[in-house]
Design goal:
The longest helix has 24 residues, at about 135-160. The chain is built from 11 helices and 10 strands. It has a 6-stranded mixed beta sheet, with helices on both faces. It has a 4-stranded antiparallel beta sheet with strand order 2-1-4-5, with helices on one face. The chain is of the alpha/beta class. It has helices at about 5-10, 60-70, 90-95, 115-120, 130-135, 135-160, 175-190, 205-220, 230-240, 255-260, 265-270; strands spanning about 25-30, 35-45, 50-55, 75-80, 85, 100, 195, 225-230, 240-245, 250-255. Helix 6 crosses helix 7 (about 175-190). The protein is globular, with a radius of gyration of 20 Å. The protein has a domain at about 5-10 and about 20-115 and about 190-270: 3-Layer(aba) Sandwich (Rossmann fold), CATH 3.40.50. The relative contact order is 0.18. It comes from Haloplanus rallus.
Length: about 270
């Protein structure tokens, strides 16, 4: 990877050393009327790993993501992040703590350029205020912050190899390019754990390989990933630990080899014995 990867990875980062398992989900449940979407889900994600969350359609994977990240409030159970109970917090509060997600359908601002989309992502920006406009020192602080932010934006765009699209409107990007932009925006928030919801959906094989390469490099630099994906082969080839959901419950978890041999997994995916 280029020097840009260094800027996208360790530079300026201060990782909490609270626990080797930053994300813990215990007894998580959610009902929609008479339908139980998530039923007592319990699992952990180890720091610095790429963990896969798989299951047939309707297994409850995306709902679990929504519960973890505050998009939905669980009926029961807890979500703990770096030792803190974050159950029921607002999505922005969870993201501010370093637990950030992407979406199955990219949510870029289509009428803004790639660069403008990126500049909106980071937290803690000072922004424009009346008092800043009349105090020279305050104005310099804002300019310095914007300069530093712009440098980091370009580093991450280069890391994801989309710097040539900086002035392109996000609405004109292909599906794969939008996935790259969304992951770049997520990385710019300086997360500790990234939850990726179907990051390869609608992505051609070439871009899929690029995305995987970026994910593996970031994991090697200390980032932690929880990945929802329908493609079992992709999960088995790229994840060290795999969690399988079925009908809202955790069916099993383990190494790819262990999960492949599990008869309950075979039955859940294929509807019978093999």
């Amino acid at each position: 990877m280029s020097d840009a990867a260094d800027g996208a990875g360790d530079e300026g980062r201060s990782r909490p050393e609270v626990t080797d398992t930053p994300l813990r989900v215990e007894g998580l449940s959610k009902r929609f009327g008479g339908i139980t979407a998530v039923d007592g889900a319990t699992f952990e994600v180890e720091r610095g790993t790429l963990t896969g969350l798989i299951g047939p359609n309707g297994a409850g994977k995306s709902t679990t993501f929504n519960l973890i990240t505050g998009m939905l409030t669980p009926d029961a159970g807890t979500v703990t992040f770096d030792g803190e109970d974050i159950t029921g917090l607002e999505p922005y509060e969870i993201a501010d703590r370093g637990l950030v997600r992407t979406f199955q359908i990219a949510r870029e601002l289509q009428e803004m350029t790639v660069l403008e989309n990126m500049m909106l992502a980071p937290k803690g920006q000072r922004g424009e205020r009346l008092w800043r406009s009349v105090l020279p020192v305050a104005r310099r602080d804002v300019v310095d912050q914007e300069t530093e932010l712009l440098e980091r934006v370009w580093e991450i765009l280069e890391f994801f190899e989309i710097e040539h699209l900086a002035e392109e409107y996000a609405g004109n990007l292909s599906g794969g390019q939008r996935k790259l932009l969304e992951m770049a925006r997520a990385l710019l928030t300086d997360p500790d754990v990234l939850l990726l919801d179907e990051p390869f959906a609608g992505v051609n094989p070439t871009l899929e390989r690029r995305l995987l390469d970026h994910i593996h490099e970031l994991r090697d630099r200390g980032y932690t990933f929880l990945l929802v994906e329908h493609d079992m082969d992709l999960i088995m080839e790229n994840c060290r630990h795999v969690i399988v959901m079925h009908q809202g419950r955790i069916l099993t978890e383990g190494t790819p080899a262990e999960v492949k041999r599990d008869e309950a997994v075979i039955e859940a995916y294929l509807g019978g014995d093999v």
